[in-house]
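Weekly structure sync, notes
Attendees: PL (lead), two postdocs, one rotation student
Agenda item 3: pending single-chain targets
PL asked that the sequence for the first pending target be pasted directly into the notes so everyone works from the same version. It is reproduced below exactly as submitted, 108 residues in total.
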Amino acid sequence: MQLISRELKAGLRTTDYVARYGGEEFVLLFPETGPDAALVAMEKLRQRISKLPFHFSGEPVTVTFSAGLAAFKRGDSEEAVFERADRALYLAKDAGRNCINIEGEDAG
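Predicted structure, written out during the meeting:
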């Protein structure tokens, strides 16, 4: 996870924020960034992670990067945004993983 953390941080702007959120999940915040620009940034990160040389017991391992994107809306609580992002993440995972889903859109 340290390698992934470093790659995520290296692929973000100085104004962005990344934190580990549970076992294999991270939260990324893109201040003053619309969904389209956030999607582009997440896709670059997905590609960056996919190129990392992961190995387990000397054998190469494929690591996937699934993400759910949600934007803050007027009157939102942090919990509401996290819930929408989490639903979008699980739609991306259900769609076969290694993709990014924006809240309210079908994954795939």
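Discussion points:
- The chain has one domain: 2-102.
- Strands lie at 17-20, 26-29, 55-56, 59-60, 67-69, 100-102.
Action: rotation student to compare against the earlier draft before next sync.
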